[in-house]
Amino acid sequence: MHNPDIECELMIIGWGISGMASALFAANRGISTVQTGMTGEIIFASGLIDLMGVHPVQNKKTWNDPWAAIRAVSKDIPAHPYARIQKQQIQKALDEFTSFFGDAGFYYCGQKNRNSRLITSAGTIKQTYLVPQTMWNGVSALEEKAPCLIVDFHGLKDFSARQIVSVLKNKWPSLQHLRISIPGTGGKKGEVYSENIARSLELPSNREKLAETIRPYLKSIKAVGMPPVLGMQRTDQALSHLKELIGIPVFEIPTMPPSITGLRLREAFEEHFHGDGIRTLHQKKVLGSRSLAEDGFIFDVGTWEKEITVKAKGAILASGRFIGKGLTADRKHIRETIFDLPVFQPENRSGWHDKDFFSKNGHEINRAGIEIDDDFRPIGPSGKPVYQNLFAAGSILAHNDWKRMKCGSGLAIATAYGAVNSFKKHLLKN
Predict the structure, then answer these.
(1) pLDDT tens digit sequence for 309-333
(2) The domain made up of 6-103+263-427 is a member of CATH 2.60.200.40
(3) What's the pLDDT tens digit per position in 365-409?
(4) 3-class secondary-structure state, position 281
(5) Could you tell me which CATH class the domain 121-254 is placed in?
(6) pTM attached to this predicted model
(7) In whole angstroms, how far apart are CA 314 and each of 14, 26, 37, 325?
(8) How would you class 101 by CB atoms within 10 Å of its CB: exposed for 0-12, middle for 13-18, buried for 19 or more?
(9) Separation between Cα atoms, residue 387 and residue 164, nearest integer Å
(10) Domain boundaries, the chain
């Protein structure tokens, strides 16, 4: 065998929330790491950190206390990933993750041991645990049902202030809506995108034009809501500047993917993550892997063909589900794509989906994934680890209908924390 191009202690496969969190936790523990994967799936992240909001899903029971919800889930579904990690460890993981992003200018807000409620671009009301600072004023505005102006922009097709106001008119009757031209464009018409507006509003002069445009409509208004367009970086400065210009609080409203807040997370991570001993291979896939038993793994990494060979003592699989290509499906089975690990799934394809698209029980395919032991190692039918030096984190884990349970990012961060600490305990103890 030729010598590998790179040798490291830990290989992290994935670039979503769990992949980024794993790399951050590894760097903070002095673990030499290579992270690889495609970065596209992060744009599907809302930026919100859902810890646990709904259980049981068939009853649509919502919880104000996410920790009580996690205790209930762990009792009712012993194989759920949250059952593998204690509350204090989850809290430490959240603190470490949000502290890093706060230093990078992406601040989080929340209420101690309590979920918060905010509106979405669909006009629905969502529960979540931690909220980007740019959205936080919307939490208090909703709680007080304060008179608010929701603003959108000509040509922006994925956000309608009129729709939000129409859907919420019975629950929040003091909402108003306004459509304006994008500052700095001279009123040009045509389709526009959130990222273009966000980069435009990084300029103080364009924020001043925005303030001039909406100021005449603020009589009796207590706060202004808009899509996530207050810049791409240092959004706290854009938020405070716009508040100063119009004299009342401003808040962003989470949108459907692709998400500006997901792009912000990615840019903040890429710009500020400079851990010693960490090497990132952007937009590179693991094309093949070979186990060396106790000596670790050899990975072939590249875009379309092998470009780099990496030898690692162990690995964390944070490759996501179907969007992240961690799982794939053929006519008969759901498969894990890199190690060909056993996948928990219904016995046959007919069990993947309920005949009712909106079934209160959800669809079994959303609970498919990799089963793990208490150390976050993928297990086989015998219940024993498939590899002693392979760990898994994030949405690829089984028994975890995170979209319906409202626990996506919180679970991704918590299981990344558990996987990194288990790797360190097992493989770096000497």
Answers:
(1) 999 999 999 999 988 889 999 888 9
(2) no
(3) 889 999 999 999 999 999 999 999 999 999 999 999 988 999 999
(4) strand
(5) alpha beta
(6) 0.94
(7) 14, 12, 16, 21
(8) buried
(9) 49
(10) 6-103+263-427, 121-254
